[in-house]
Amino acid sequence: MTPQIAIRLNTLALYSISAILIVAFYWQMAHDELPCPLCLLQRVAFTALGVGPVLTLRHGPRPAHYGLVIIAALMGAAIAARQILLHIMPGDAGYGSAFFGLHLYTWAFLCFVAAILASATMLTFDKQFAPEVKAPARGKFEDVAIWLIIGVTALNAASALLECGFSGCPANPVRYELLN
Amino acid sequence: MEFFIAFFNFALAMWLAWRHEAPSAIYVFFAGLVFTAALYLRHATDALPLSF
Q1: pLDDT tens per residue across span A21-63
Q2: What CATH code is assigned to A3-179?
Q3: Closest-CA residue to A111 (of A155, A171, A50, A158)
């Protein structure tokens, strides 16, 4: 795999992470379902997933960048698994409404596992890490991906501030604290 | 506020990466990871109202 292909795949990963966060944000607005603290932590883990690909786009492919993705994905998967286990009892309707048959935290768990698999697979392609290869040039496609993920993260930060206010976030939020 | 800080932390890490400050971005990333783990430990035992 050439560095250019690795860059392109990392760019697609950034767009995917942004898409996941945008869908979660749309779900919050359209269904008026405020994310619980564990849900917010999963969103935080998704934004953490973006740091590795951004580093790759700016500095070229490095094994350490994929390591950051795996660490962030492990943390996100642990948080999502905790929430799945909270609602595993038969008869429990779960938190929030279902999206294509699964709750958002179940989708999140699957996405984090997919991120671990994808990063581990990328690590097996050695040629992208050749030391004599400079960071390939970026284009508009890559720049938009970086600013989109930073923008979506900032949007989530603002939403979390509106929801939780300046104190600790309630366990079962029912209103935007700063709007009341 | 705590989640605002967590999101801001990773936005800052990405911005630092964009500014070609890779070591700083990685330090901020790990600081955010520790903060998020602390948030998780704080909220992992939240009492959730059961829906059945």
Answers
A1: 999 999 888 888 888 888 999 999 999 999 999 999 988 899 9
A2: 1.20.1550
A3: A50
B chain contacts of residue A87, beta-carbon cutoff 8 Å:
51
B23 vs chain A: nearest CA distance in angstroms? Answer: 10
Note whether B25 contacts A153, CB cutoff 8 Å. Answer: no
- Mutation choice for A interface testing from B9, B19, B35, B40 by most A CBs within 10 A: B40
| Closest approach of B31 to chain A, Cα-based (Å) | 11
Rounded Cα gap, residues A125 and A113, in angstroms? 19
User: What is the secondary structure of B1-52 as a DSSP string?
Assistant: -HHHHHHHHHHHHHHHHHTT-HHHHHHHHHHHHHHHHHHHHHHTT--PPP--
Amino acid letter, residue A107 = W
* Per-residue pLDDT tens digits for A130-176: 776 566 667 888 889 999 999 999 999 999 998 888 887 877 777 88
For the record, the structure tokens of A61 come out as: 């492919």
Q: Is A71 helix (H, G, I), strand (E, B) or coil?
A: helix
Residues whose CB falls within 8 Å of the CB of residue B45, separated by 6 or more in sequence, listed in order: none
Instruction: Name every residue whose Cβ is closer than 8 Å to that of residue A126 and which is 6 or more positions away in sequence.
Output: none
Rounded to two decimals, the pTM is 0.90
ipTM: 0.88
**A94 with B1: Cβ contact below 8 A:** no
